[in-house]
Amino acid sequence: METGLTAENRLIEIAECSLPGDGVTRFPFTDEHSRANHLIAKWMRQAGMEVWLDAAGTLIGRLAGQGARASQTFILGSHQDSVLNGGGFDGIMGVALACLAVEQAFAEGTEPDFSIEVHAYADEEGVRFPTALLGPRALVGSYDPQVFKMRDNDNVSLKDALAAFGGKPGAIHSLKRNPDDTLGYLEMHIEQGPVLERENLAVGVVTGICGIERNTLTLHGKTGHAGTVPMQGRRDALVAAARIIFEIQKEAKKLEDLRATTGTLSILPGAVNQIPEIVSFSLEIRSPDDAGRNGFRSFMIDYANSIAEEQGCRITVEQTYEQPAQDCDTRFRTLLEAASTSIQGRSISLPSGATHDASAMAALCPIGMLFVRCRDGVSHVPEEYASPEDMGQAIEIAARFLRTL
Ligand code: HGY
Ligand code: MN
Ligand code: MN
């Protein structure tokens, strides 16, 4: 329980590293991120780690192994960033619990025979820039240099923001890790759903992570005076977009495990008495089944093209982000289930509808995830909460897991 209270106090303190407003708003490569990294570095040093910022802006703590497997590294981590007005647990809790689990696992001076790292990734949410997972993808060697050109709402490029923050865009290619030297990756994360609360269990073992993609659809119509242009023959980009967005929901409802969401929409000229000319909106699709997600996207793009033609609009579709579905490693799941049962008396396993840094790390090494009970199942809101008791259980389970690796 004591480690759970330490976690709670650390999370309360780091939640202050936020823009003003409800909840936590901490975007990558900002002053808030810099202040948060200062606190995370203290957590890592408290666990006996040396600390540095890598070229992709990931804060890394490392505890060198003392035995035969010293050249091999087991990584724990999660992301430091939040959504706009988000909660104080999504991402950052996984970093806090990782530091405490390492401290607890090897508290008695029994250094691990392998090396251990804790990573605080800069950007998992993809809110400031329309991309995400630069940190883990740099370690995997799967990042796309094109993302450096992406710009935030203040027209600042990811490349300039990263460089100003202390990262080295030109050196990211050198971060690629050797899979043979990477034992695996464990991420602890608030569940962001209702299952553990319903099952009345503090910690669950994750079976796999859904696949995800994000697309931007843009309709180009023709603007004009709202009062003088007849209804017949209008090329109203917003009417076309609305028809497509409605169909997205209608079709997605037919597919049990698929989720499709339009979370952003922009309208130009955007005046009450002008016919909309350019309308852009996001289409995010998630599913544990990549083939099903691809099929849904194809269907929706065909439909969007037919509506654009019917409304006399031109349409462009750009995929800005994709991450395939990933299974968690069966050996890690077995070890985590055993640790969970020894501490909680039982263990349950569940899938993740949210994506995580582990989604990208799966291309480098075996992954495992633990979910921590989430009050009312809500996340990405200021009310997001995990109790110190539950966090203490997760720390204990992770520490036991590390000692069995
Ligand atoms: O969107 C997600 O699933 C994650 O919270 N970034
Ligand atoms: Mn997260
Ligand atoms: Mn999130």
How would you describe the overall organization of this protein?
The protein has 405 residues and is of the alpha/beta class. The protein folds into 2 domains: 2-209 and 325-404, 3-Layer(aba) Sandwich (Aminopeptidase), CATH 3.40.630.10; 211-323, Alpha-Beta Plaits (2-Layer Sandwich), CATH 3.30.70.360. Helices cover 34% and strands 23% of the residues. The protein contains 11 helices and 14 strands. The chain has helices at residues 2-14, 31-46, 92-105, 134-140, 158-165, 195-199, 237-252, 290-310, 330-344, 357-361, 388-404; strands at 50-53, 59-63, 69-79, 114-121, 182-190, 203-209, 211-220, 259-261, 265-268, 278-287, 314-323, 326-327, 349-352, 367-372. The strands form 2 sheets. Strands 1, 2, 3, 4, 5, 6, 12, 13 and 14 form a 9-stranded mixed β-sheet that branches. Strands 7, 8, 9, 10 and 11 form a 5-stranded antiparallel β-sheet that branches. Strand 3 (69-79), helix 3 (92-105) and strand 4 form a beta-alpha-beta unit. The longest helix is centred in the C-terminal third of the chain and has 21 residues, at 290-310. The model has no long low-confidence stretch (mean pLDDT 96). Residues 83, 90, 125, 380 line the site of one manganese (II) ion.
Summarize the structure.
With 405 residues, the chain is an alpha/beta fold. The chain contains eleven helices and 14 strands. It has helices at residues 2-14, 31-46, 92-105, 134-140, 158-165, 195-199, 237-252, 290-310, 330-344, 357-361, 388-404, and strands at residues 50-53, 59-63, 69-79, 114-121, 182-190, 203-209, 211-220, 259-261, 265-268, 278-287, 314-323, 326-327, 349-352, 367-372.
